[in-house]
UniProtKB/TrEMBL annotation:
Main location: membrane
InterPro entries recorded: DctM, TRAP_DctM
Protein name per the record: TRAP C4-dicarboxylate transport system permease DctM subunit domain-containing protein
Protein's membrane topology: Multi-pass membrane protein
Spans traversing the lipid bilayer: 31-55, 106-135, 147-180, 186-209, 229-248, 289-308, 329-348
Amino acid sequence: MSGVWALIAFVGVIIAWNAGAKRNIGEAMILGFLAVCGFAIIGGLPGGGSPWTAIGSSVLDAMQEEVTFAALAFVFMSYLLTRTPLLDKLIDLLNSVLGGLRGGSVYTATVAGGLFGAIAHIGAAVTAAVGTVTVPWMKRSGVRPEIAATVVAGGAGMGVSFPFSATMFILVGGLAAQGIMRPEEIVAPLAFAGLWCLGYRLLLVFFLVRRYRIDRVASEERLPLARSLRNGWTSLLLFAPIIVPLLLTRGPLAGALGTYSGVAVESKAPVALADGSTLPPEPYAMPDVISLITWIPVLMIALVLLLGRRHLPRTAAGWWRTIGRAAPSFGVIGITVVAAFAASNVLAELGLAE
C-alpha cells in the first residue's frame, strides 16, 4: 500500500509546485522524486534491502535509459529546426493548399500545428513557429485577435500529443519501468491521441469559420502550389525520419526483413514482470534491433543538419553559442525525464505494480 501513497504524494507534489507555486516542471519533478524517496527511506522497502541502494540504482538506471537520450536529442533537433527556414517553407505549402478555402488561414495554422507537433514536439516552439507566419494572415482575413491567439496556442497541445514527445517519454518511464508495457507499444496509442486532437481541432475550426464568417487568404498572399513545391519540397523530407524507421519495424516490410535477416528465428527469454507474473517467450522482431526511440531523433538531427546547413553555424564558436542558447531546455527536459524514470523505479521497489 505504501507504493500507492507514494504515487499520490508524487503526483500531488508535482501539481502543487508546478500549478500552485507556478514553478517549472523540472523543479516539480525533483521534489516529487524526493517525496517518493521519503516513503522508501522512512517506511522501508516491502522486499527488504537498503532504500539508499535502491534510490541510487534507480537514478543510475534513469540516466542510462535510451529514452533520456532521445528526449534530449529531440530538444536539440527542435532548436536547430527553428533556426532554419524549413518550417516556413512547410507553412507556405500548406497555405497554397488550404489558403483558398473559406477560413483558409485558420485551417493552415491548425494543420501546421499538427504537422509541427509530429516533428518538433516542443509546445512553445510549435506555437512560435506557426504563429509568427499565420497570425498576420488570420488578422488580414478578418479573424479576431483572441480567436487567432486561441488557434495558434492550441497547436502547442499537439506538440505534446504526438509521439515522440515528452509525454511519451514520461509514459515510457512510468509504464515500461513497471513492466506493464514496452516502449514501442506506446507509439500507436499516442499517435492515435495526436490524430484525435488534430481532428477535434479541425472540427472546432469548421465551427469558428462559420460562426465568425472568416474569409479565405488573399490570393496575393498565397503562392501557387507549383511554386511553393519548387521552393519548399525539401521540407516534406522532415517526415522521412519518422516514416522510414516505422516501416522497418512495423508491417509487412518489417516482417520480411525479420525473416530474411534471421531476427525472427530465435526466441527471447521469458520476461518477469514487477507483479511477479511472467510473460511467455516471444520471437525476436525488428523493434528489438531497430529502436524507434533512438533512431528517429538521430535521423531527424542528421536531416536538419543537411537541409538547413546554409543557415546553421559553420564554426566551433558558432556551434558553442547555439548549444548554449538551447541549454535551458536541455536542463528542464532532461531533469523531467530522469526524475520520471527514477521515481518510477523507486515506486516499483515500493510494490506499486501489485
